[in-house]
Prior knowledge:
Elements: E1 13-17, H1 24-35, E2 39-41, H2 48-55, H3 62-82, E3 86-89, H4 95-102, E4 109-114, H5 117-126, H6 137-143, E5 153-157, H7 162-171
Parallel strand pairs: 1-3, 1-4, 2-3, 4-5
Amino acid sequence: MLNQSSNTGTATRWIVMGVSGCGKSAIGQALATALTLPYLEGDAYHPAANVAKMAAGIALDDADRAGWLARLQAEIAAAVARGEGLVLSCSALKRRYRDLLRAADPELRFAHLSGARDLIAARMQARIDHYMPPSLLDSQLRDLEALQADEAGVTLDIRKSPPQLIADILQS
Length: 172
């Protein structure tokens, strides 16, 4: 993993990424608080059709995700234009999705929350009122492409406590 010098300043833009149920929202909110940056929930940018599709147990494809990713890219670009940092939770499952997001900000950093399928499935089962059913976990794991050596960021083990995960991100 490319581990550039600490990039935790106020203009840093972070994507907290991973499959559904890995803790993106909770860790993203905590990271934003630690950095005193705005937090954007990537799921809030999905069009209603995507949410309905996932709620029905149908996995999204690249075409479904295209408009969603473009909206997130626009939010990142707006933050860059303002010279501001942000923390965004987004699955960013595939390298080409991350490349699209990074096109808005070459300095964009990724915190990949990674863990065992059984642990993530248990977390998904425990969630209340979330549209993403556990039945879609395997499709997300199939689509997931881990961060590559030339991508700025860090891969984290979700068995760690949230405070430890935040500390690991801040030290990356």
